[in-house]
Amino acid sequence: DGGITQxxxxxxxxxxxxxxxxxxxxxxxxxxxxxxQDPGQGLRLIYYSQIVNDFQKGDIAEGYSVSREKKESxxxxxxxxxKNPTAFYLCASSIAYGPTDTQYFGPGTRLTxx
Amino acid sequence: GxxxxxxxxxxxxxxxxxxxTYCNSSTTLSNIQWYKQRPGGHxxxxxxxxxxxxxxxxxxxxxxxxxxxxxxSLHITATxxxxxxxxxxxxxxxxxxxxxxxxxxxxxINP
Lengths: 114, 111
Prior knowledge:
The structure holds two protein chains of two kinds. By secondary structure, chain A is mostly beta strands. Chain A is built from no helices and eleven strands. Chain A has strands at 4-7, 10-13, 19-25, 31-37, 43-51, 54-57, 64-66, 76-78, 87-94, 104-105, 109-113. In chain A, strands 2, 4, 5, 6, 9, 10 and 11 form a seven-stranded mixed beta sheet that branches. Chain A has a four-stranded antiparallel beta sheet with strand order 1-3-8-7, with no helix packed on it. Chain B is mostly beta strands. In chain B, strands 2, 4, 5, 9, 10 and 11 form a six-stranded mixed beta sheet that branches. Chain B has a five-stranded antiparallel beta sheet with strand order 1-3-8-7-6, with no helix packed on it. The model of chain B has no long low-confidence stretch (mean pLDDT 94). Classes of the chains: A mainly beta, B mainly beta. The interface between A and B is medium-sized, with 21 and 25 residues.
């Protein structure tokens, strides 16, 4: 099956701990994205990557870090510097980085920081 | 920064009633995309509009892109319980480097 996988589906962490969210795609897409979704709000872009070994900050990058060492993988680390990390995190990919390129979303990871 | 505004934020209808959500931008959009997110799920692409005044239909769903390319709408005729979810628009405002998502309209339906 082709698609995007995110793991785990639910994640609990203690305050002050860093946590890494996994995102893998086998669609052979060049571009990948991380979004944060809070209740009643839309999707806010955290980081995006147009191509392997390159990534750019989105609108709310503070307290997050990413890497793009492989085309199919784009992990997101939520650091202890993120003040309010509890949220639903969505990874997406598109064939290329362009506004007309359809984004395909993974199932999401719901992070709760206790 | 550039924003894409979506209204209403919430809409509750009786099954069989129609539903419309609107997407507005203060600047011209190069395109508009619509996504649907079921409760507990992830956004799924529905359609993309690119041309001024464009209208596309998918069964009971009608999508429009305004003549000035600053607004768009999604209309659902005779809603069914399977239509429940949050509908997002997304577009690239002039001067923006990336796609911007609206806040979404959450549709609930009374069967």
